[in-house]
C-alpha cells in the first residue's frame, strides 16, 4: 500500500502523503481514517489527517475563497500578469507573485455621488488548496496590516478593527 492519497473533483486534483501510522479505508462510500495505536502522537495525527482530507474534498468540490478589503486614501491593488501589485502608501509599490493554482482578482470600488465607501479595493483569492489560499491571503495582509488609529491597511472581509482614541491634547 502506498501512503499517498489523491482527491479528484470538478475543480481539480490534490495529492497528500499520509502520516506514519495512519491508514485510510473506503467502506460503503465513506472514507474512514484509522490510527495504529492510541498514543498521544497517533491521536494528533489522526485528527490532523481527517481534517486535511476533509479540506481536500471540500477544495476540489467547492473551492476556498478569502476576501480582503483595502482601506486608506490612495491605497489600491491590481493584478498584472502573474503578480499582485499593491500601492499602500510606501515610497514604492509592492509586487507579490501569485502562487500556482490560485486565482486572484483585484477590483476598485467605484465611488458614487452621495455614497461613502470606506474601502478602496477588494482582493479576492480563490483556490482548491485551503492552506495555499490562507497563506497567500496572510502574506497580502502582512504588507500593511490595519492600524488602530485610523483603520488604514489591508484586512479580511469579516475582520473588525477596534479604533483607539487619539491624543486628548492639552487644554
TrEMBL record:
Entry similarity comment: Belongs to the universal ribosomal protein uL6 family.
Ranges in coiled-coil conformation: none
Ranges of residues in domain Large ribosomal subunit protein uL6 alpha-beta: 3-63, 72-156
Alphabetized InterPro entries for the sequence: Ribosomal_uL6-like (IPR000702), Ribosomal_uL6-like_a/b-dom_sf (IPR036789), Ribosomal_uL6_a/b-dom (IPR020040), Ribosomal_uL6_bac-type (IPR019906), Ribosomal_uL6_CS (IPR002358)
Keyword Ribosomal protein: yes
PROSITE patterns: RIBOSOMAL_L6_1
NCBIfam families named among the record's database cross-references: L6_bact
Role this protein plays: This protein binds to the 23S rRNA, and is important in its secondary structure. It is located near the subunit interface in the base of the L7/L12 stalk, and near the tRNA binding site of the peptidyltransferase center.
Keywords, alphabetical: Ribonucleoprotein, Ribosomal protein, RNA-binding, rRNA-binding
Superkingdom of origin organism: Bacteria
This protein's GO CC annotations: cytosolic large ribosomal subunit
GO molecular function, one term: structural constituent of ribosome
Example GO biological process: cytoplasmic translation
Organism annotation: Cloacimonas acidaminovorans (strain Evry)
Pfam families membership: Ribosomal_L6 (PF00347)
Transmembrane regions: none
UniProt protein name: 50S ribosomal protein L6
Amino acid at each position: 500500500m502506498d501512503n499517498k492519497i489523491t482527491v479528484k473533483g470538478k475543480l481539480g486534483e490534490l495529492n497528500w502523503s499520509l502520516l506514519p501510522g495512519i491508514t485510510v479505508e473506503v467502506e460503503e462510500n465513506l472514507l474512514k481514517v484509522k490510527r495504529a495505536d492510541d498514543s498521544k502522537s497517533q491521536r494528533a495525527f489522526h485528527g490532523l489527517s481527517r481534517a486535511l482530507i476533509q479540506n481536500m474534498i471540500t477544495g476540489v468540490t467547492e473551492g476556498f475563497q478569502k476576501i480582503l478589503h483595502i482601506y486608506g486614501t490612495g491605497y489600491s491593488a491590481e493584478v498584472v500578469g502573474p503578480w499582485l501589485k499593491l500601492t499602500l502608501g510606501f515610497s514604492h509599490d509592492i509586487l507579490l507573485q501569485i502562487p500556482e493554482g490560485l486565482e486572484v482578482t483585484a477590483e476598485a470600488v467605484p465611488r458614487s455621488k452621495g455614497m461613502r465607501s470606506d474601502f478602496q479595493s477588494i482582493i479576492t483569492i480563490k483556490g482548491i488548496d485551503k492552506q495555499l489560499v490562507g497563506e497567500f491571503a496572510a502574506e497580502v495582509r502582512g504588507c500593511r496590516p490595519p492600524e488602530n488609529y485610523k483603520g488604514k491597511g489591508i484586512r479580511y472581509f469579516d475582520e473588525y478593527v477596534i479604533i483607539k482614541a487619539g491624543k486628548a491634547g492639552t487644554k
